[in-house]
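User: Structure tokens for both sequences below?

Assistant:
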Amino acid sequence: MTQIVEMKGMNKYFGKLHVLKNIDLTVEQGEVVVIIGASGSGKSTLIRCVNGLEEYENGKLVVDGHALAPKGGNQKSLAEIRKEVGMVFQQFNLFPHLTVRKNVMLAPMKVKSTSQTVANATAERLLDRVGIGNQADKYPSQLSGGQQQRVAIARALAMEPRLMLFDEPTSALDPEMIGEVLDVMRELAREGMTMMVVTHEMGFAREVADRVIYIHEGQIVEQGKPADVFDNPQNERTQAFLSRVLSH
């Protein structure tokens, strides 16, 4: 298997706060890794380091063969990494003055110098793929939250990424809209997209993940197949966390 992400002894600080502590983690091509843990445990910071939105202090981070330097180092690989890594956030971050179609077309035209004709065809194909092809000429404000998040996914896919990062993509959605976004993510997983997903949706994690990672106070304290982590957690911290979240 091809390794898409490698972290070795990676540490991240915010001032004096030690947010990520000696993280060792690899993600293989085609693997779906779901990261769970309490708020403030470092989950989002971890995946934000993968595409350089956060700089780590020391250790090693390699993304699709490109070494990403620690804070203060030469980030010559950053542009290449961002061409190959798509990211979907809690908030949709769509341009309100652009139509849905143009939101999706923008990145390949700007970053990959894709022609307008090709970018338009790509946008139409991807919007169909996420189930909102009929919304292409509307503006984001005219869509529901679930529809806007599907536009954000299409926009990330327009870069033809080798890795997709999802940072709690359903947390800003009303309950009835969560399912439509998770359905798109399930389809990506079935198609073999390499994914790192931070989520509180435990049912989704159990169903889709190849591996579940539990982070507590910046450390990976348990990881394994979903059935092992959810049904037979070995670490008492994992047990306590799951007893809280699965009882609601």
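Moving on to the next sequence.
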Amino acid sequence: MNTGPQNDWFDKDFYKTLGVSKDASDAEIKKAYRKLARKYHPDANPGDEKAEEKFKEIGQAHQVLSDKESRAQYDQVRAMGGGARFSAGSGGPGGAAGGGFDDVFSDLFGGGGRTRTRTTYTGGGDVPPDLADLLGGFGGGFGGGGYGGYQPPVKGGDIKSSTTLSFTEAINGASVKLNMPGGKPLTVRTPIGVKDGQKIRLAGKGKASPNGGEPGDVILTVHVRPHPVFTRDGDNLRIELPISFDEAALGAEVKVPTLGGTPVKVKVAPGTPSGRTLRVRGKGVKTKKGTGDLLATVQIVVPKNLSKEAKQAVESFKAATEGEDPRAGLLDKAKAS
């Protein structure tokens, strides 16, 4: 019997390979495997032969210890063989050496004593039928598909979802309940200051992996309804501030609304033109990086209906400013260009 690969396999301590105790739970084994697989994966260590070999060993250990039946068999073999160490029989297939690989398996799988019942499986070697299946899928010299016979776990699929928030909810953050496949809702707290069209990744909340890998993610797209007064410019808030002609001409102190707060007073300097922007610091969007400002753009409002007295006042103002031309030089500039 050729015991080379088998003897090498049973000489390894799979618990030590994963860094767990012999009585480790399935969850502990799975957690340890994931951590080591990420660390030694060939894609993360290109050209590193030692990391590649370590990755194969980790895959072997996980395949044995993650399966309840194979783990039980492995534990029995270790107990009967003094720590999973075996010596090959001498003198060929019928060698007379005692305590070898076949003796342990004949006892373990029902052979008893020195009587050996051998079954040859496709792939070569004399291995009990149930153990042949166990060995056939391992990497590190036992054949099978994938990378060295080891099929790495696949991450579960992502789930795409969307939600619509009010302008204020987006600025302050909000709790959103998502309807997930299977009927179980998922409650999510959106980040403070989330923007329209922003995608939020909820790690580990997606579909389960088909072979023990990490679950997928939920990709949440946020839509934000417009506000009737405020618009967003990065972390700043913008507002159009209507003022009267006399406020613009003579100067004034006017109230400016803030988002969800009390109004603030700002000074309009005498002679302020329409379109000038006034900055109110610290009244914009609050984020982890800081707080933006409130930008109020002045718009001079012209009254549609003037009383007799108001009309006379405007006529007097017109006469008093007859020499001023707001369009002076405009025609010349237009011709020059």
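User: Anything stand out in the second?

Assistant: The chain has eleven helices and 13 strands.
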